[in-house]
Amino acid sequence: LKEENASLRSKINKLQIFSETQADKMRKLEKKLEENKIKEEKEAQDLEAMVQHVEQNLQLMTKRAVKAENNATKLKQENALLQVQLKNYKTENEALRSGQSASLAVVKRNADIALQNLLTVITNSRSSIKQLVSGAESLQLVADILKSIDRISEMSEDGQ
C-alpha cells in the first residue's frame, strides 16, 4: 500500500509539473495571440488610411478628368462655330471674286480675324489635350496603386 501511495504521489507530482508547464505554454500563447491581434489591428488601420488616401486621389483625378472633358467639349463647340465662320468668310470671299459688293480690305480683315480665332482654338485645344493626357496618366497611377493594395492584402492573408 505504501509503494502504491508513493507511486501515486510520484504520478501526481509529475502531473502537477506537466500541468504547470502546459499553463506556462498557454500563457505564452495567449500573450503572442494578443500581440498578433494588436499588430493586425495596426496593419488594418494603416491599410484603411492608405485606401482612404487613394480614394481621395481618385476623386480628385475624376474631378480633373471631368473638368478637362468639359473644357474639350467647349473647345469643340468653339471650333465648330469657327468652322462655320470660316465657311461664311470663304463664301463671302468667293462672292467678292465674282464681282459682288464689299471691298477686298474687309475680306482680308475677316480672313485675319478668322485666322486669329483658329489659332486661338488650336492653342486652347492643345492645352486641353495635354490636360486630358495628364488626367489619364494620373488615373492609371491610381489604378496601379489599387492593384498594389490588393497584392499587399493577398500577401498579408498568405502570411497568416
Automatic annotation (TrEMBL):
Belongs to the ENTR1 family. This is Endosome-associated-trafficking regulator 1. One of its GO terms (biological process) is regulation of cytokinesis. The keyword Coiled coil applies. It comes from the Eukaryota. The gene is Sdccag3_1. GO terms for cellular component: centrosome; ciliary basal body; early endosome; midbody; recycling endosome. Residues 19-92 form a coiled coil. Keywords: Coiled coil.
